[in-house]
Amino acid sequence: MLRIRPSALIAASCALALSLAAQAAPPTKAEQTLKYRKSLYQVIAWNFGPMSAMAQGKIPYDAKEFAMRAERVATVAPMLSESFPADSKGVAGSELKPEMWTNRGDFDAKMKDFVDKSAALATAAKTGDFAKSKAAFFETGNTCKACHDKYKND
Amino acid sequence: MLRIRPSALIAASCALALSLAAQAAPPTKAEQTLKYRKSLYQVIAWNFGPMSAMAQGKIPYDAKEFAMRAERVATVAPMLSESFPADSKGVAGSELKPEMWTNRGDFDAKMKDFVDKSAALATAAKTGDFAKSKAAFFETGNTCKACHDKYKND
Question: Which pTM does this prediction carry?
Answer without folding.
Answer: 0.84
